[in-house]
Amino acid sequence: MSYFSNINKIKFEGPKSKNVLSFKYYDPQRIINGQKMEDLLRFSVAYWHTFTADGSDPFGAGTMQRPWKHLTGMDLAKARVEASFEFYEKLDVPFFCFHDSDVAPEGNTLGETYKNLDIIVEMIKDYMKTSKTKLLWNTANMFTHPRYVNGAATSNNADVFAYSAAKVKKGLEIAKELGAINYVFWGGREGYDTLMNTDMKLEQDNLARFFHMAVDYAKEIEFDGQFLIEPKPKEPTKHQYDFDVATGLAFLQANNLDKHFKFNIEANHATLAGHTFEHELRVARINGMLGSVDANQGDKLIGWDTDEFPTDLYSTTLAMYEILKNGGLGRGGLNFDAKVRRGSFDVEDLYHAHIAGMDSFAIGTLVANKLIEDKVFENFIEDRYNSFTYGIGKEIVENKANFNSLEAYALNLGEIQNKSGREERLKSVLNQYLLEVISEFATV
Amino acid sequence: MSYFSNINKIKFEGPKSKNVLSFKYYDPQRIINGQKMEDLLRFSVAYWHTFTADGSDPFGAGTMQRPWKHLTGMDLAKARVEASFEFYEKLDVPFFCFHDSDVAPEGNTLGETYKNLDIIVEMIKDYMKTSKTKLLWNTANMFTHPRYVNGAATSNNADVFAYSAAKVKKGLEIAKELGAINYVFWGGREGYDTLMNTDMKLEQDNLARFFHMAVDYAKEIEFDGQFLIEPKPKEPTKHQYDFDVATGLAFLQANNLDKHFKFNIEANHATLAGHTFEHELRVARINGMLGSVDANQGDKLIGWDTDEFPTDLYSTTLAMYEILKNGGLGRGGLNFDAKVRRGSFDVEDLYHAHIAGMDSFAIGTLVANKLIEDKVFENFIEDRYNSFTYGIGKEIVENKANFNSLEAYALNLGEIQNKSGREERLKSVLNQYLLEVISEFATV
Amino acid sequence: MSYFSNINKIKFEGPKSKNVLSFKYYDPQRIINGQKMEDLLRFSVAYWHTFTADGSDPFGAGTMQRPWKHLTGMDLAKARVEASFEFYEKLDVPFFCFHDSDVAPEGNTLGETYKNLDIIVEMIKDYMKTSKTKLLWNTANMFTHPRYVNGAATSNNADVFAYSAAKVKKGLEIAKELGAINYVFWGGREGYDTLMNTDMKLEQDNLARFFHMAVDYAKEIEFDGQFLIEPKPKEPTKHQYDFDVATGLAFLQANNLDKHFKFNIEANHATLAGHTFEHELRVARINGMLGSVDANQGDKLIGWDTDEFPTDLYSTTLAMYEILKNGGLGRGGLNFDAKVRRGSFDVEDLYHAHIAGMDSFAIGTLVANKLIEDKVFENFIEDRYNSFTYGIGKEIVENKANFNSLEAYALNLGEIQNKSGREERLKSVLNQYLLEVISEFATV
Amino acid sequence: MSYFSNINKIKFEGPKSKNVLSFKYYDPQRIINGQKMEDLLRFSVAYWHTFTADGSDPFGAGTMQRPWKHLTGMDLAKARVEASFEFYEKLDVPFFCFHDSDVAPEGNTLGETYKNLDIIVEMIKDYMKTSKTKLLWNTANMFTHPRYVNGAATSNNADVFAYSAAKVKKGLEIAKELGAINYVFWGGREGYDTLMNTDMKLEQDNLARFFHMAVDYAKEIEFDGQFLIEPKPKEPTKHQYDFDVATGLAFLQANNLDKHFKFNIEANHATLAGHTFEHELRVARINGMLGSVDANQGDKLIGWDTDEFPTDLYSTTLAMYEILKNGGLGRGGLNFDAKVRRGSFDVEDLYHAHIAGMDSFAIGTLVANKLIEDKVFENFIEDRYNSFTYGIGKEIVENKANFNSLEAYALNLGEIQNKSGREERLKSVLNQYLLEVISEFATV
Q1: How far apart are CA C202 and CA C210, in angstroms?
Q2: Between B and D, how many residue pairs show a Cβ–Cβ distance under 8 A?
Q3: Cα distance between the two ends of chain C
Q4: Closest residue of C to B429, CA-based?
Q5: What ipTM does the predicted assembly reach?
Q6: What string of DSSP letters covers B330-356?
Q7: Do A442 and B420 make contact, defined as CB atoms within 8 angstroms?
């Protein structure tokens, strides 16, 4: 059975194509820097937004028109799996991601939930045999059910901690079963609403305990996927413990967990924390902690997570700049943790949205790659900081200076000359690269 | 004497040019929609940011390297005038704008201030005789001097109101003398910090009185420039009375002033108010109140007015879309109320920054114009709202329906079918237009 | 049958009481300024948050423990009515408010929905016969059902406009039937997500048409309740047309509707728009447009509507200051448009929360009343603005001055002397009033 | 000579006093929890805001009326020292803080600057001999002069790094000379405006080098004051490296500096970072890093640092709660890094503002202490988390559980029961404590 019978396989047709259901810029086989675009970008579809979500929001019911809408329970779960693999194939996307509860309904008991999961995981495994699409990561939903009202690993209720442990245990087993390349921890409700009723220290200590148990269990079952923490500053709780990359890093370091984790960085979470997307990527990169990316965008005038499909070419370019400087994403990928707007309720919009995101990241990749090839920022930065390559600057970076030697030097300095940062020109150059790189692409 | 002797006249050289001091996209003579780009865009240099400001900020002293830096008083004022006209000519820009205090130093008395102004205005007038550059608008600075600590026309001090009236009177006379096309009122400190010490009603009534007096005086001296109000939500005061276009409109309507004023809309003020730039332009446009534009950009992650040069091509495209749909700016212009970053302290950066802004608006114009020519949004919107062109919808817009007729109709309706808003596809199309329109431009 | 059998009637027991289920400061019969506190404050329970909502949020399912939880359909609707009147009585609250869909389930057709409503309205009417609790206002929910995905009166779909008209028609009939004192319009989805697919002018014109039809129909059926518009800047749509009071005022004035409407002002909507609660109240007050209040509070560090119960005594004091200066709320009231936190899921929390809100507004009333009695701000303001009571200031406010006379005056002024605004001292005094007024209350 | 001859020594006169220049709640000798209020609160005056600042802002010139206003250079510097000690004495405050450039003017060379500093430091030392007021901390201003345009220790210019090292070296010597109890590092311009021209890794590595050199030099000269880092998220740069406590902690840990530093936490910096003040205090406290406090408040609707005097009693109560739970501030203090509003320009306002702040923290202390004495939150939290004191919860916190044991437990669980968080009741209780504790205080 086909769920998207009126949609043909999406192909690269170039920017002149009038076919709205084609890639204009994303050309999977195109070689960039010795690598196929497909292998470099490692796109992934987020199961929850694309197959599970119905378009409801805090002020309204679901709007999404979906061919599986009439089904319920396990029938619905199975239909979604079928539809998902048809979708991956038509979009020609190499990865997908899911929470346990996206794929299988919760049962009346944990045991029943396990059984439901087992059936669906078996089905997914079967589909994967004949599909090129792999599991980038899975995770456990530990925020939707009322039991998680006060968090999961940071709940005030030990039963909830135990239940959550069982969920992640099962999640790791599924990860191993399906060959997941990573396993993600998003904090969900791991945070607080008011300090007046919160023991922050116990909660964070318990979170560290939980992570250590996960590391131990992965070792026990020989699951060798990368563990990823996904920072988010707030929502649903007022304060989430994994506020941003730096906060996550402080926590991991303090608990001897930094060797076992990297970060899964989401654009919209970055801006909710008051940072640019590229800032969070940079912080992770220079600390060797850039694991994977949730590729979406937010609206900076809006104070909640809008999870929009990424179409801002400045954002995709500057993000890909960080990723390329990182030598790529390694075992990570670009997962579209993005939802079609509530008003974009047609099935067709799912394709439009993913095409928009994939084309936008393809453009960003082409531009970022050319910026790096031409060393546009690198040369500017090399020149800007060159005072650290000789004399007193060299002594500083080689740890040969101290306050006494530096004072002696400073007392003999005349007026210090600085160099202009040229921010306006650099922004102009970025625009020129965006337009001209793509202009050349168009004529290929 | 030349202030910018190492800078040649900035010319259009196209996107392939390696000359950083050239326009890549702004081609003043290029015809768009029957009009020269120069006549359509009406660029203006902001005297204060470019010639008066020194780069100081709340945490630091001035950094700007300027060839007139060693001068003081009237000598400094005169040097700035000389430099400004050299700058306009080298940048080939048709307009400039100033506050009274940007061009001439305040004297010890109001009379002395008038004398200083008279000397400089005479000098400017002289320069204008041989320059193509006209005065887009002038205004009075009524916020820097300590006397305005509690506002000008909304001060609690009647003396300050009187003093401010004299300033605007002089400003209108200068406007007439120099042939200013508009006169601007930016609220400065017209607002409050705490309601606990504020009589908001008296302050707003006084503001209305002040505006009526200005209208009367302009009539008296036969100054026929357009009066413009520039909304800003906050900074320096916590709440500014001209919060945004809608707030300004409510005030003007309530005080019978809406016939005499339009709005000067600034991008960064829009975003500080929680709106997009294009939102403010749209609100003004559909109310027939779009007067002129302060062309800059803010950083939406930053809570103060950063007044950056406009380089975001989404913003320039969507702004130009509103402006072109408005039939252009009429007597208004695109004034670069923008400052080079504090770290961009070289004279050269002033040119880089203006080039960046002019190229960015040129690109925005080309893209917006093509979007309109192809009726990309128009066709979509026409189709989206077409239910109002027949049947019950037609009755509604022709004011022939009422709750009784509509209820009768509604009771017979089956399930209502809506149309997808296609936001993701529209964003994709916007990207494609941006890249492809400019790609074609490049080959011209 | 009793739904809250373990809860006794909440009584005023004073601040020393150890009974958590008692009023500590809200003493309904206490006379303030010649009026009973009960008559002055006009508290109202919001049906939706208290009886209909289940505690779900965008990341989680309902958590609320409610004695009617096991019921569905009309049985559930009826149980809620029963519970609601028990709640009003135990809380001794004079008003309630509801949306149509809060009280009765939507049927398969509009006709069925009417029938459900008729049954429930009849039942409510019956309860009201023996209850002191009156209907402060009702309204129509035009945002939850998918048909409103693009708005109601501003939908792109004429059928939705017609359907919405029928809903409001029915709402007005219910209002008349139940003796509602006001009828509220909250914009719901009357706004837009992207201008690229939006005809803002048509949408706003249609909104004006809709309001005129409502005014006409109220006249037709002789419903004489006050019409109220409730501003909100964003959420669920990115931009709501009734952004704030000023924006609403501009719209009403432009469409000759300002005679027929006042505003229902919500604290959390004010702060989402970047204003304080008291600012919005002041703007409405000085324009004669203060109708009613949605008494809640937001968290200014959070970018979405949290609808918390009001407990911030600064906010309740400054709000009550505006309300008392307005001569009270007239036909309006203080409606607790507030929800218990998702983690406060016990039935008991509903009582705790309302007690917290009622006590907080009682305190605010006592403090604000004393501030006004002592003319604390009034005297300060009178002195601060006294320059407008004589000489040039008097001429200004009596419209006898013009730019010529003011310039003549200003030219003869010496250095202008301003008066300190004393913000720090005023804040200190506010604290002192808060603590000392209540300290005296305690000893009564 | 007296600078404040019309101001008498500020004394505790209790809440009934009509004398605006008296403490109403701050009673230095009152014993709280075995300690004098004065010793517990350790108030400090910020030299820069109170004696150096002139009230200028980005849109206006200085407004402050000060008796030393007519002086310049070293005469001005000396007058300020004289005035400052008169101020400390009249306010009876035990500490003060300064940046080097607050107290002495910069010379033409570093050597001259040193000389100016030496003269003033000698003078301060002399005053300290007969004053009870001690130096809580000093620091070096490394952000005002243009040389710091790109930062100090993170400048791209090695000369600036060297110059900054000399400044801090001198600062540490002054600290030792004056017996400073702490030495503070606020990041000033240690951050970036755009990543396009920034080598974040080199900059942060250099910052770590700089801190290590400071630690070494302190050891060399046997200065044993506590080193403090003051986080701030942005302003003046778009991104400051010491964003918040967690970010600072990550940096210190990664660079083996956490043993040598604690944090100086400012309320307004916390809210600019999206946190409450008490959140930042809590994070520092549970990590053993709470050093000192910059006691002020911001306006959460405003996006820049307003540095207001602390008058919000919720904020002072919840801050003092953290501080008391920390066992006090140790070597730290409550430094009023706060400025009078630009409109509060009288000398008298300096006293009003400090009195407001001191009374507000006194109230906060009384309330927080009583909350702790009564174990209001402690008992609630103990009960809320009690599931971790026995059974599976005990095993978890004793590190005896693992995923296998927890799964076995979870599989046998029935429906999990959670406890209500009672946020509304807790907020009510907080109000009651605020009002009743102070009500009792009033009668003492």
Answers
A1: 12
A2: 89
A3: 39
A4: C196
A5: 0.97
A6: TT--EEE-----TT--SHHHHHHHHHH
A7: no
* CA-based nearest residue to C238, from C282, C307, C189, C297: C189
DSSP-derived letter for residue C49 is I
Residue A158's Cβ-count burial label (10 Å; 0-12, 13-18, 19+) is buried
- With cut-offs at 50, 70 and 90, classify the pLDDT of residue C230: very high
As to burial, measured by CB atoms within 10 angstroms (0-12 exposed, 13-18 middle, 19+ buried), residue D366 is buried
Instruction: Report the pLDDT value the prediction gives residue B442, as an integer from 0 to 100.
Output: 60
Tens of pLDDT along D106-160?
Answer: 999 999 999 999 999 999 999 999 999 999 999 999 999 999 999 999 999 999 9
Note which residues in 257-296 of chain A have CB less than 8 A from chain C.
272
Q: Tell me the C-alpha to C-alpha distance, in Å, between residue C147 and each of A40, B36, B292, C211, D314.
A: 42, 47, 39, 20, 44
pLDDT above 70: residue B399: yes
Show Cβ contacts of residue B286 under 8 Å, excluding neighbours closer than 6 positions: C200, C201, C204
D426 inside 8 A of chain C by CB: no
Q: How far is CA C213 from the centre of its chain?
A: 24
Locate A341 and state its tokens.
């707007």
CB within 8 Å of C173: residues ≥ 6 apart: C221
Residue A408's contacts (CB-CB under 8 Å, 6 or more residues apart) are none
Cα distances (angstroms) measured from residue A4 to each of A41, A68, B421, C168: 25, 11, 20, 40
Q: Taking each helix axis from N to C terminus, what angle separates B347-373 and B73-91, rounded to the nearest 10 degrees?
A: 40
Q: Annotate D145-157 with b (16+ C-beta within 10 A) or e (fewer).
A: bbbbbbbbbbbbb
3-state secondary structure of B376: helix
Interface contact D202-A249, CB threshold 8 A: no
CB distance D9 to D89 below 8 Å: yes
Nearest CA to C151 out of C240, C229, C254, C211 is that of C240
CB D64 within 8 A of CB D103: no
- How far is the C-alpha of A214 from the C-alpha of D365, rounded, in Å? 43
A14 by DSSP, 3-state: which?
A: coil
% of chain D surpassing 70 pLDDT: 99
What pLDDT score does C444 carry?
A: 45
Residues in D closer than 8 angstroms to B341, CB to CB, are 193
Put simply, whether the predicted model's pTM sits higher than 0.80 gets the answer yes
Q: What six digits make up the tokens of C236?
A: 């669920």
Helices (H) and strands (E) in chain C, counts: 16, 12
Q: What six digits make up the tokens of B4?
A: 């910018």
Q: Is A243 on the interface with D (CB under 8 A)?
A: yes
Give the three-state DSSP class for B131: coil
SS3 label, residue D233: coil
Token pair recorded at residue B214: 């200005």
Q: Exposed, middle or buried by CB within 10 Å (0-12, 13-18, 19+), for C406? A: buried
Check B407 against C166: CB less than 8 A apart: yes
Taking the C-alpha atoms of residue D59 and residue D223, their distance in angstroms, rounded to an integer, is 41
Number of residues written out for chain B: 444
Q: Is C299 a catalytic residue?
A: no
Distance (Å, rounded) from C-alpha B219 to C-alpha B169? 12
Which residue among the candidates B27, B100, B102, B244 is catalytic per the annotation?
A: B102
What mean pLDDT comes out for the span C238-265? 98
Across chain D, mean pLDDT equals: 97
Q: Phi and psi for C136 in degrees, rounded to 5?
A: -65, -50
